[in-house]
Amino acid sequence: MTAANALRSDELPLFGQRRAAGDRAVIRRNDLGAGVHNGDRCRVLAVDAQRLQMVVAVDRRREPIELDARFLLRHTEHGHLPIAHGYAVTGHIAQGMTVDRTFVLAGPGISREWAYAALSRGRVENRNYAVGSAESGRDELAPGERPEHRLNARDQLARDLARSDAQPLALDQLGRARERGIEL
Predict the structure, then answer these.
(1) Which of 21, 56, 102, 137 is most solvent-facing, going by the fewest CB within 10 Å?
(2) Taking the model in full, what pTM does it have?
(3) Which helix (H) or strand (E) holds 15?
(4) Do 83 and 19 form a contact (C-beta atoms < 8 A)?
């Protein structure tokens, strides 16, 4: 974004990273006093490195919000920065979001439900990218899976999408228990 001159030159350094007016960002921490929630997407409107302040336009709100040093210098309970670059977001952050195009990287551990949620965000286009098992440079020393058992990207994706992480509803479990003559 800097090379494309899409950002202003004034920057706010935070924990080894820089934010500038024009950046897309994601809020990583709830702060009711500041009026932001974890997962809010925003655009940085202005930064003031001297006063450690940032003004953002949160996508779901009309008026800009000022984030002060109290917010910007406090990590999340998991140790993450309170505001992260938001040019690409996770499927969890994208839940409920609608955009023109999605580009989804299907990694290990995906399921049918996760893929559906991630690939149903785009109005115009949804693209899925998958990576198959890679050869290890140490296969000859400490072989893991045999090369003939490694899946290519398409077969790996098909296997992962066949897996469901759906949780049965309590009402469904109750009905099955009653069918077997078990009263709960």
Answers:
(1) 137
(2) 0.68
(3) none
(4) yes
